[in-house]
Design a protein that fits this description.
CATH topology of the largest domain in chain A: Tetracycline Repressor, domain 2
Radius of gyration of chain A: 19 Å
Oligomer: homodimer
Number of strands of chain A: 0
Largest interface: A-B, 28 and 28 residues
Order of helices and strands of chain A: HHHHHHHHHH
Helix content of chain A: over 70%
Structural class of chain A: mainly alpha
CATH architecture of the largest domain in chain A: Orthogonal Bundle
Number of helices of chain A: 10
Largest sheet of chain A: none
Chain lengths: ~190, ~190
């Protein structure tokens, strides 16, 4: 009974993520195997595959939760909020969701030089834009307004995020999201 | 001499594109081989590979010229034009560049059900946004304004393009681009 309990590790997922990030940084993403990640985390490959479909998903497992947080906030924005404001509420929720700048910086350093991972990131962003557009349609916003607002909001998010993980930038993500929304307003005006 | 001239076909590229589109529509993209495309066009595989790197490039060979046309128009916009107007000039140039709605509709019908082709399209759009941002920087626009404007302009283009190839929509692409820019302005205001 005690042995069985000891095999259950509540933080296996977190340990696997840290081990993967360390190995991706040290040796490069392509040179790292799942076996090595599991070993570094002191776990088995079987445990790895209970948490992640493959070594790529370690880097992207947060995207679904992020999307959920943003879409939930868009849906929950005041009924009277115009589409662009509802999207701003959603994107600002992302600013609260993403807190660990060091993790995001390390992740970005792994993704940037790898075209396959970059493509995956593009796909996640496209999926985010399309989920936001869906949330706007549920609020009664018709197309093309729903898609346009969702795309513009996603662009604001991506650019604020890039500024946030830029070395030397110590502003909060939420402040950068605010700034980027204001900047877009003045550019389009 | 006459034989050598006869082997040179000034419209080989166009014939290969048409043959490929026909086969992709009839059998599906994955089920079509380069050998079949060449045969349908009455040409050799060697000729195919003189024009296209692979069967995917038949669908994306226009993207580089489109990007060039847009970036050239952004660069050539009046010096006094604010960033968003310079991008509008560039995107409107795309409206002049893309004239064959039937071709674009058929191409879309091939890409839409195929995740690999969709990803390729996303990458081309990301490359377009980054090329427009580069053209803005050369005009003296700093970041994040350059990236934000480029991303917003690319979103407008994508949405106007989607509306254009939507069955039942008979408006001109240029008119749809204008409408989408105006719509974005009123949404952001």
């Amino acid at each position: 009974m005690i042995a069985a309990m000891a095999r259950w590790d509540p933080d296996a997922r977190g340990r696997l993520m840290l081990a993967a990030m360390d190995l991706y940084s040290e040796r490069g993403y392509n040179q790292t195997t799942v076996a090595e990640i599991a070993k570094r985390a002191g776990l088995t490959e079987r445990t790895f595959f209970r948490h992640f479909a493959d070594k790529r998903e370690v880097l992207f497992s947060g995207s679904a939760q992020l999307e959920e947080a943003i879409v939930g906030a868009v849906a929950g924005a005041p009924e009277s909020a115009p589409p662009f404001d509802a999207v701003a509420v959603g994107i600002e929720a992302a600013g609260g969701f993403l807190r660990e700048r060091d993790y995001s910086r390390r992740r970005q350093a792994i993704i940037a030089p790898n075209p396959v991972l970059q493509e995956r990131e593009l796909i996640k962003m496209a999926s985010l834009a399309s989920a936001i557009a869906g949330a706007l349609r549920k609020r009664g916003v018709s197309d093309p307004a729903a898609s346009l607002t969702a795309e513009a909001g996603t662009a604001v998010f991506r650019i604020a995020f890039e500024r946030w993980i830029d070395e030397g930038n110590e502003k909060h993500l939420l402040a950068l999201i605010h700034e980027s929304f204001e900047e877009l307003k003045s550019l389009v005006a």
